[in-house]
Amino acid sequence: MNQTRTFLLFALFAVAYFLFLAWEKDYAPPPPAATAATSASAATPAADASVPGAIPLASTPGAKPAPTIAGDTAAAAPAQLITITTDVLKLSVDTRGGSLVHADLLAYPQAPRTHKAPNPPPTVLLTSDPERYSVAQNGLVSSSDSAPADQPNHLALFHSEKTTYALADGQDELKVDLTWQDAAGLKVTKTYSFKRGSYVIGVSQRIDNDSAAPWQGNAYQQLLRVEPPKAGNWLANYTNPETRSFQGAAWYTGEKFEKLPFKNFAEPKDQLNTPIKGGWAAMLKLYFVTAWIPPADQTEQYVTQTINPDSAHPRYLIRTVGPALSVAPGQSLTSQSRLYVGPNKQGTMDAIAPGLDLTIDYGMFKIIAVPMHWVLSQFHAVTKNWGVAIILLVLLIKGLSWKLTAMQYRSSARMRKLQPRVQALKERYGDDKQKMQVAMMELYKKEKVNPMGGCLPVLITLPVFYGLFFVLEYSLELRHAPFLWIPDLSAPDPFYILPIIYALVMLGTQWLNPVAAGMDPTQAKMMKVMPLLFTVMFAFFPAGLCLYYAVNGIVGLGQQWWITHHIDREDAVKPA
């Protein structure tokens, strides 16, 4: 396969793949309509119609009907917001349920820092904004038939002594208590614990039963989120990495990582309703994750549901429900859990919970992307610059594949020299394709030319392209990483310099391999527009990917020139 077909095959795969991603985002069929509160399973008891948006707990067939968790409703307006600030987080907690309704990641700005904007606002991971709604809730629900209407769930009113809490200088831990108590004497103290430098929030619910009757029920944690708004056209979605990334819920079963995109939440076959031990439940966002992490030794019921699917902003829920709790009169009991609200940083997540590192989802190219990220990280540890690390990665891969690419360039050079003789064969045999093929094979055999000599390097190039694409787009470390004039290697080159450099490299490659006289006319026309096509295509790719291929192209062009020049010299000294 010559260099011409290499470019054509590469362009075909790349354009087709990314156009498919854009089409899927814009034109994928919507999920089927569901009821106001879609249960995770037909076996789950019906919701209490007296409570708007009420959602039942999952129950075991044949067992006593499970209690109902009050749904998340628009009528549940914020009671009072408590501001909590640590060295890495700024949170808002609503005293209605003690829910986390806003989270700023102070170390991760929304945009790169520049001279014009030295202090961009921090990334918002949780918010009560209806168009980008994303909150973390937890609570307790009673299983008693005689339980009062008011329960310490995520809609109950809690009390806090202060409205502002902050981790002081020199302080390593901060605790925030919220309390709830009913008329019968049942008291619940919800405590959020924060540690310096940590995105893990400890959550405990202490039940003090000073009533005359035992309390029985379950603790639960849940995440709710709406699908992020899309841009007005497919091009904006195509160029926005967040809209291209996975949007939905994810969970870990203790052995397997699973995902559920928002568009599939209403599909009965995809819904989750299963007991899991040693797992976690999360909502994923590009570069960041929110995850409830129950105790590893505790089996919980995991459920996914859709709330108010017919509204302008349906809310998607993933919940974990703990085992049954029983607190006798005069006794106390504490339920524990953890909440992670922070960056999706490779190599650190599994230390928080087993399998949490899998939320950095490179898809089917993970087998290539993960080791490539590791190599890049090693180069970055030495150079302290991701752009330089990418250049070193180019040189490493070029060195490892030097003989393969040399085989490709030699094949291209030999094929180019044979083009006049191939054209003569076409003129001799005319439309007799069978004789033409036999004559061409004899010619290639005589001249010791392998027409497929360039195929193997292409098979290596394409997986590397896609693997590196996902590394550069989905790895947090490369977000806002600067290099020379580029403020963010994970975003397109703002001045289109790298795409233009790559186009010039392609022109140089065409100069070394001019369009042969015997080439198919359609293929010849395609080759002439390839530099323009790649310039446009690479203009929307991450600058880091363009840097890789620009440097790769320059090195390859140098190697090809040397091999072509060497072959010309060999032919010049051959006896006539």
Q: What do these coordinates show?
A:
With 576 residues, the chain is an alpha+beta fold. The chain has helices at residues 3-27, 234-239, 241-244, 366-383, 386-400, 402-429, 433-446, 455-474, 497-512, 521-538, 543-573; strands spanning 37-38, 55-56, 68-69, 81-85, 89-94, 99-109, 122-126, 134-142, 164-166, 173-181, 186-195, 200-209, 215-225, 248-252, 257-261, 273-277, 280-285, 288-293, 299-307, 315-321, 325-327, 332-343. The strands form four sheets. It has an eight-stranded antiparallel β-sheet with strand order 10-11-12-22-18-17-14-15, with no helix packed on it. Strands 1, 8, 13, 16, 19, 20 and 21 form a seven-stranded antiparallel β-sheet that branches. It has a five-stranded mixed β-sheet with strand order 7-6-5-4-9, with no helix packed on it. It is elongated, with a radius of gyration of 30 Å. The two termini are 29 Å apart. Mean pLDDT is 79; it is low at 1-9, 17-54 and 58-66.
Provide the fold topology.
Layout: H1 3-27, E1 37-38, E2 55-56, E3 68-69, E4 81-85, E5 89-94, E6 99-109, E7 122-126, E8 134-142, E9 164-166, E10 173-181, E11 186-195, E12 200-209, E13 215-225, H2 234-239, H3 241-244, E14 248-252, E15 257-261, E16 273-277, E17 280-285, E18 288-293, E19 299-307, E20 315-321, E21 325-327, E22 332-343, H4 366-383, H5 386-400, H6 402-429, H7 433-446, H8 455-474, H9 497-512, H10 521-538, H11 543-573
Helix pairs in contact: 1-8, 1-10, 4-5, 4-8, 5-11, 6-7, 6-11, 9-10, 9-11
Summing up helix and strand content along with how strands pair, one would put the structural category as: alpha+beta
The largest sheet, given as strand count, sense and whether it forms a barrel, is:
8 strands, antiparallel
Number of helical regions: 11
Helical content class:
25-40%
Q: Would you identify the regions where 5 or more consecutive residues have pLDDT less than 50?
A: 1-9, 17-54, 58-66
> Strand share of the residues?
15-25%
The overall pLDDT average reads: 79
Distance between the termini: 29 Å
Radius of gyration: 30 Å
| Principal-axis shape | elongated
Strand order of the largest sheet: 10-11-12-22-18-17-14-15
Number of strands: 22
